[in-house]
Amino acid sequence: MEHASPEAIREALAHVYTEGDSTVENISQADLIHARLVGGPAAKARREALGELLRIGYVNGKQLKKTTADVSDQFGDILAGYQTDRPRGG
Description:
The protein has five helices and no strands.
C-alpha cells in the first residue's frame, strides 16, 4: 500500500464491502418474493446469478436475507433491477 498510487488505492477501495451486524432491515421477505428470488420455479437460478454478481457464492432462500444484508448497498441496486426485470418463462 505504501507504494501504491492514489488512483490504485481508489480503485481498490471502490470494490470493498464490509460484513457486519446490520440492525436495519433494508430488504424484506416481500422484496425477495417480488424479485422472484424465493418461492418460484426459477428462484434458485436467479439466486445463483445473484451470488455471482455480488461475489458471495450460492445462497439458499433461507440464508438470502441475512447474507444480502451484509452487502446491502450493492444488493439494493441489483434488487431494483430484478424487480423490474421480467424474463419470460421463469
